[in-house]
Write a structure and sequence with these properties.
The structure holds 3 protein chains of 3 kinds. Chain A is mainly alpha-helical. Chain A is built from 14 helices and 2 strands; from the N terminus they run αβαααααααααααααβ. In chain A, α4 packs antiparallel against α11, α4 crosses α13 and α5 packs antiparallel against α6. The radius of gyration of chain A is 23 Å and the shape is globular. The N terminus of chain A is likely disordered. In chain B, α3 crosses α4. The C terminus of chain B is likely disordered. Chain B is built from 17 helices and 20 strands. Chain B is of the alpha/beta class. The longest helix of chain B is centred in the N-terminal third of the chain and has 19 residues. Chain C is an all-alpha fold. Chain C has a single domain, classed as ABC transporter involved in vitamin B12 uptake, BtuC (Orthogonal Bundle), CATH 1.10.3470. Chain C has 12 helices and no strands. The mean pLDDT of chain C is 89. Classes of the chains: A mainly alpha, B alpha/beta, C mainly alpha. Chains in contact: A-B, A-C, B-C. The interface between A and C is large, with 48 and 49 residues.
């Protein structure tokens, strides 16, 4: 390294270059570092609102993790988050930006509610039927945008999003109208009977949704990592032109992935309706769409990391809930924290994907 | 000071890829200096430093003896350096005039337009380029686009002109014209750097030649005639390689037939016009032609990426109404695409995944429900050995392979399926002589096992070397067919004739 | 008759935010930047517009300026992230939507649900009173007329100035623009910032003119509709007005229909703008014509040192 002198500095310029190889431990540490950085900023905001650091520590760490009730609350909260995370991941892997997760959740809940409201099927089959229908309805809501993308190249970000609003208004229509609870005349659906509620497994508040989640994680892992479909879809996601040229059924793979994504979101709708709300409501999907996207993004669209990230996200929710109640913080807080963390992570990707170099020009 | 541009001790790496290692180069004023080397030798990289696109890791660049720091295209242009890249830097949906304004526009819009329009006409006349300033760039021929680039660079007052493989996209006639023009420029005192890998040009027009290999400068001399073509070749590759004389095989049954194919481009121009071709098993059919006469469209149709507007596509006796890449491959058709990173590989995925992706459905690597990774890995290791693919392990990312090795990977995948019909589109573009030979050998072996091969290439030498039958495509039609060995001159004439509406010679 | 007059009169009010945001997006996209965070920036523009209005003593002008500045700042931050830090434009955009919602939800509490007088339409004696179309043409607020001027200016800038040419080149072929000595990063940052200002203006109008109040999440998808509008308008400024009027008329119709007790259930009526957007997207996709396509380099970051 030459002597630092003015000449030395003047002859060097900052250049941005693409890194050719990215070392995994380096990448992981950058991601973790940026998450912590984002959390740090969020904590700063909370401190700015007059909350003391000790109570943040208590709420976030102690009550959430070192406490059976806390952990159980986190698990319960994470269950739908894993499902939407997996759903988002399945779509993102093939570059299908499914922003319509909330709409698909609504449709899933609608599907489940139809079974519940009309008492379709014998009681012991009720829950499985509800699950199946929720998945089907969720897929249905993703079908339109999927077809529009592969046939007409309509941008799926907008089409899935518009369907969110349409689903939402449809639910409102039903809940203020034909499906209004006859008992209390409130705009939420009739309560589910016992046969239509996911039972608890016996430990704290955790319910059988956790079984569904584990099942889905295994299924998604198998599809992504071990099936032909999974490997082919990796090509579709990374180089769609090449995939097309080598004869992979790109449209079919894209559409199928979108449908699976919708189905997973639909199952999340079922789980919330059946295990938490015990009825169809119009607030049930709020925030899950973006959470799913964030989870999938941070997990690199891979199934096992999705599980981990969803769990962490669940803890954020739980801690956020209690802080909301105790310090009357607005709902928007959790969303804001999520946004800050994501921005922090994507900004940090700059350091993994590119390299800043001092380029040397000039004389002997 | 007679030295115009000089590089000393230049190093440049892209990650693990050492593109330039202690490279040196110097060109004088009033000289046409050929920079020779195979692809990957570092020629383009070195000149991209001069044009301000790359920053060197180490080393000195001097203009007229003074050390300079070229930190961007603006700086290069201020130093009177003008580069014509292999991939033109033109905005397709804007006119020639607009593109020039982008480069040289100053001050108010209207004034810029008029001033530059005049300047374009002047220079155009001076050097005999007939360019319509209001034509949209994407309607121009490749040669006309190149001329636009040259005008752009001259208007900037460039005294040092660097051209990167300029004749790669031109006909023999256009090449000659361009080279003569460049010679004229050098007589006017300008300094011309001609990056090329065509030995012919070195001997016909260059005043000096520098040879690069593997990022290093291997030799530099002021009189190209002081060394023989074989000698130069040896410097470029380190050992002499000649195309073997092969015995030509007689054809088997008809494998693929295209009848009356018609295809128009998006802008209405007819690309393929009543195109007919027949490919026979065990025969290599080389299709010669200047780029832009329908080859890309033909390749797209054969790859199943696009459909013809009209005509019959008959593969192994069966007419395909809507050939898609999937059903083409199912029926035994495969291809080696021209752009290997675009259509041949998924750069961010591993070598082993790229190796087997088209073979998954055969069942060799496990059923639909459970892919056998161990089998894939073993197969990949075997392929790496057989094809001598450097720098690759099964889990290496494909984008890290150099051009030649990447092409070998594509080749190994496509040939492993024992296809009945193969399209090889510019299979050796950008490969060094060793890799070229490997590819040609593999293709001949494939044809010997009964595969019908269509070779689309703009390298006439390649076509002449390995084809059993040669056709010439011009303006979307086959204008001549010959059995090997064929007359190069005759083929050359057919390639150029009637494309400008002039009568045939 | 009254229905018709009111409907026409209010159409520009509903159209304006879409048009303004779409113009901002056109400038963005012509330079190659896809700003999916429009919804969030618009929301912030709305809140800051109201904050400025209230805090500067019920000043319409300062309210609008505040909203525009908010959009400008957010646009710049977005631009910095996607251009300099080269983040993925889709993810960054979606994050900005939530950022906008989160920021306004957290910071906006003191100003939420405070009804304001806002801006009023002009009244030209005789002209504004022309039956049916009088208010439509001569009875709008100043900002609507300003928006029309903005549309013309945007067109002029993009197609009749050298800067506009260079900006468009950056979006079509950044390698070529760079080789021509054009500063790609600077133009993209500029486009993101100015685009953000337009979107902030749209948001401020929502709060100060249309609703005359700030309510949480009041944009209700208009940012996304603006994005769709740009596709429908094939990236041409004058067509944006056409699309804006179309959507504005749909949105303006809904309250009129509700008022007269139109026999379609309320929530289905609310769905119509979104259904219409979907229809428009499908229509635009079917009628793709060459020469009116998206800028080629839309959404991709540019790195000069990338192996070419």
């Amino acid at each position: 390294m030459s002597v630092i002198s003015l000449e030395f500095i003047r002859r060097r310029r900052l250049a941005v270059e693409v890194r050719q190889q990215i070392w995994l431990p380096y990448r992981l540490s950058i991601i973790i570092g940026s998450v912590l950085f984002g959390l740090g900023i969020s904590v700063a905001i909370l401190l700015g609102r007059g909350i003391e650091i000790s109570s943040i520590y208590e709420e976030f760490i102690i009550f959430t993790f070192f406490n059976a009730a806390g952990i159980s609350a986190v698990i319960v909260e994470s269950i739908p988050l894993v499902l939407v995370g997996l759903g988002a991941a399945m779509a993102f892997r093939v570059n299908f930006w499914n922003i319509g997760i909330e709409g698909q959740m609504f449709l899933g809940a609608i599907g489940a509610s139809i079974i519940a409201l009309f008492n379709i099927g014998p009681e012991f089959l009720r829950l499985p039927l509800m699950l199946v229908f929720s998945v089907l309805f969720g897929m249905l809501w993703a079908l339109g945008p999927a077809l529009l993308k592969v046939r007409l190249k309509v941008n799926e970000v907008i089409s899935t999003l518009l369907l969110n609003y349409i689903a939402y208004y449809f639910v409102l229509n039903q809940l203020f109208g034909p499906w209004k609870d006859p008992r209390d005349k409130f705009p939420h659906g009739e309560q589910y009977e016992n046969a239509e509620r996911l039972p608890e497994i016996g430990w704290e508040q955790v319910h059988y949704g956790v079984v569904i989640v584990i099942l889905m994680v295994v299924v998604v892992w198998w599809v992504v990592d071990r099936s032909r479909f999974g490997i082919s879809s990796r090509f579709v996601g990374i180089n769609p032109r090449m995939a097309l040229a080598v004869g992979l059924p790109v449209s079919a793979i894209t559409a199928s992935s979108a449908l699976i994504s919708g189905g997973l979101a639909g199952s999340a709708g079922f789980v919330i309706a059946s295990a938490t709300e015990f009825r169809l409501t119009f607030t049930m999907a709020a925030g899950y769409g973006f959470s799913g996207i964030v989870i999938a993004f941070l997990a690199g669209s891979r199934p096992i990391p999705t599980l981990v990230v969803a769990f962490l996200m669940g803890s954020l929710y739980v801690a956020g809930e209690s802080m909301k109640i105790f310090y009357s913080l607005p709902d928007a807080l959790v969303g804001l924290i999520q946004a800050i963390i994501v921005i922090s992570v994507i900004a940090s990707e700059f350091f993994t994907r590119y390299r800043l170099r001092l380029a040397y020009f000039g004389g002997a | 000071m007679n030295t115009a541009l000089e590089f000393l001790g230049v190093h440049k790496s892209f990650g693990e890829n050492h593109a330039l290692v202690d490279a040196f180069f110097s060109v004088n004023w009033g000289e046409v200096h050929a920079l020779l080397g195979e692809n990957g030798a570092g020629k383009s990289t070195l000149m991209n430093i001069a044009s301000g696109l790359y920053a060197p890791d180490r080393g000195v660049v001097k203009i007229s003896g003074k050390a300079v720091a070229i930190d961007g295209p603006q700086a290069a242009s201020a130093l009177k350096i003008g580069m014509i890249h292999q991939h033109f830097k033109l905005v397709d949906n804007m006119t020639v005039l607009e593109n020039i304004v982008l480069r040289h526009g100053k001050g108010r819009w209207k004034n810029s337009l008029e001033k530059l329009r005049k300047q374009i006409s002047e220079i155009s006349e001076q050097i005999g380029f007939g360019i319509n300033p209001d034509a949209r760039v994407d309607t121009l021929s490749v040669s006309e686009q190149q001329r636009t680039e040259i005008i752009k660079v001259l208007l900037g007052g460039a005294e040092i002109l660097i051209l990167d493989e300029p004749t790669a996209v031109l006909t023999d006639e256009e090449s000659a014209r361009l080279l003569d023009q460049l010679k004229l420029f050098s007589r006017q005192g300008k300094s011309i750097v001609l990056i090329t890998h065509k030995l012919r040009e070195v001997f016909s027009h260059a005043d000096a030649v520098t040879v690069m290999r593997d990022g290093k400068t291997v030799d530099s001399r002021r009189n190209p005639k002081s060394i023989s073509p074989t000698g130069l070749s040896q410097l470029m590759v380190g050992e002499a390689k000649e195309y073997e004389n092969v015995s030509y095989s007689s054809p088997g049954p008809l494998a693929l037939e295209l009848k009356n194919i018609r295809m128009t481009r998006d802008n209405g121009v007819i690309a393929l016009d009543d195109f007919n071709i027949r490919l026979f098993s065990g025969q290599i059919y080389g299709l010669a032609g200047v780029g832009g006469n329908g080859q890309t469209e033909l390749a797209d149709i054969l790859m199943g990426v696009r459909s013809a507007n009209d005509g019959c596509f008959i593969l192994l006796g069966e007419e395909l109404k809507t050939p898609s890449s999937k059903n083409l491959r199912d029926k035994g058709f495969t291809c080696i695409p021209a752009e290997r990173y675009l259509y041949g590989l998924a750069g961010d995925l591993s070598v082993m995944e790229n190796r087997v992706i088209t073979h998954l459905s055969s069942g060799r690597f496990g059923p639909f429900t459970w892919v056998n990774r161990r089998a894939i890995s073993q197969e990949t290791i075997k392929t790496i050995e057989d094809y001598n693919i450097h720098g690759a392990k099964p889990d290496t990312r494909a984008r890290l392979l150099s051009g030649g090795n990447a092409q070998k990977l594509v080749l190994s995948r496509e040939l492993a399926g024992h296809a009945k019909v193969l399209l090889a589109h510019s299979p050796t573009r950008g490969l060094d002589v060793r890799a070229c030979a490997a590819v040609h050998l593999a293709l001949r072996e494939a044809s010997q096992t009964g595969c019908a091969i269509l070779l689309l290439s703009e390298d006439l030498d390649e076509i002449l070397a390995i084809s059993d039958r040669i056709g010439v495509i011009n303006s979307g039609k086959i204008v001549g067919e010959f059995d090997a060995p064929a007359d190069r001159q005759e083929i050359g004439h057919l390639m150029v004739a009637s494309s400008q509406g002039t009568s045939e010679e | 008759m009254d229905l018709l007059t009111n409907w026409l009169a209010f159409t520009p009010v509903f159209a304006m935010p879409l048009v303004a945001a779409a113009l901002g997006l056109i400038i963005n996209e012509r330079a190659g930047i896809l700003n999916l965070g429009t919804e969030g920036i618009m929301l912030c523009g709305a809140l800051v517009g109201v904050v400025g209005y209230i805090e500067f003593g019920d000043s319409v002008a300062l309210g609008f300026i505040s909203g525009i500045l908010a959009g400008l700042v957010l646009g710049f931050i977005f631009g910095f992230l996607v251009v300099v830090m080269r983040t993925n434009q889709v993810v960054t955009g979606i994050t900005f939507v939530i950022l906008g919602s989160g920021l306004t939800g957290l910071m906006g509490i003191p100003w939420v649900n405070k009804a304001i007088a806002g801006i009023s339409p002009i009244h030209i004696p005789f002209l504004t009173d022309i039956p049916i179309i009088g208010r439509f043409i001569f009875g709008q607020d100043l900002v609507v007329y300003v928006t029309i001027i903005l549309t013309i200016s945007t067109w002029y800038f993009l197609y009749r100035t050298r800067m506009g040419l260079e900006l468009r080149a950056v979006g079509e072929n950044p390698q070529a623009a760079d080789a021509d000595g054009i500063n790609v990063e600077a133009y993209r940052l500029f486009a993101a910032t100015i685009g953000g200002a337009f979107i902030g203006l749209a948001g401020a109008y929502l709060a100060l003119a249309m609703a005359k109040i700030f309510v949480l999440d009041m944009t209700q998808g208009r940012g996304w509709i603006a994005i769709a509008l740009v596709i429908f308008a094939r990236w041409m400024p004058w067509r944006v007005i056409l699309g804006g009027v179309l959507f504005g008329s749909i949105e303006a119709l809904i309250p009129r229909l509700k008022a007269i007790g139109f026999p379609i259930p309320q929530y289905y009526l609310e769905m119509t703008p979104y259904l219409a957007t979907l229809a428009v997207l499908i229509y635009a996709a079917i009628r793709v014509r060459s020469g009116q396509e998206a800028p080629k380099a839309l959404g991709t970051p540019y790195v000069r040192q990338d192996r070419q």
